[in-house]
Amino acid sequence: MAALAAGALAAAIAACEAGAVTAAPVAAPSEVRTHPIGLVPAVLVCGAAVLLFGFEQNLLGYAVLAVGLVVAWLVDRSGRTDRLLPDLLLIAIGQVIISTMPLEADIAYWSMVRFAVVLGLAVAVPYVISRYWYGDRVIRFPWRTGRRWTRTQWIYLIAVTVAGWLILPFYFITSGVYENWPTVTTPDEIARLFVGVNAVGTWDELFFICTVFALLRRHFPTWQANLLQSVVFVSFLWELGYQSWGPLLTIPFTLIQGYTFKLTKSLTYVLIVHLIFDAVVFCVIVYAHNGWPAIFPLVPS
Hints:
The chain has helices spanning 2-20, 39-54, 58-78, 84-98, 109-134, 151-175, 187-217, 222-240, 247-264, 267-290. It is an all-alpha fold. 71% of the residues lie in helices and 0% in strands. The chain contains ten helices and no strands. The protein is globular, with a radius of gyration of 20 Å. Residues 190-280 form the CAAX prenyl protease 2/Lysostaphin resistance protein A-like domain. One of its GO terms (biological process) is CAAX-box protein maturation.
């Protein structure tokens, strides 16, 4: 399976090197040629995440990725689109890297190191290829925008906190998905769970929003790019443990995160929103396993 993926990615890289990618800086996103037909390979590449992470069928997922990249090459070659293959290739590379390990929550020390290395590579490799091989700056991590947060942004943070506090405990406990995370009782285990939940939450925004969403927005209207990144994001969250009726929560969450990033252009802001939810998730998991902290009003007795 890994060989098939490596072969497909190598072929795509060769095609990029042969003509789709040049050493010169790329044109601004508005100058990149786009065409509705480009949605076909984009849907294939992003839809492969459902197989890779949702159903854990790597062989089928790699095959769909390969087909999507081939179609992207054909569409670029026809002149209808420009640089679609190189950008979809980066998304495919990230997905293949992630698929090399199981995503079930595990806070053993070795597992946390493995998560850090693999997920770190899934962000770093596309970034390095984009910045130093392609010579562009589409993938960026805008921590500081130089703009003050508006009153609406502050109100939204409060609303997010209240919504997470009310909804997430009900979801985790009534669905039983809290059992997808390990039981934590000792201070060391609780600390590792806290670090793991927040580290993965931070990575989510670096990869799904600043990488996948940013690359897709170069070629498609924001609403289409947002739907496509949501497919990848939600599939990842499903394997991570947000199952049962979790997509009813994770789909709106991922779409809102993409739209919020588009409005604010601030990684810091969307990350804080995400980490607020993750703080609630952490507390709920600890509560579900231990009965404390008893701070949630909407949990079954």
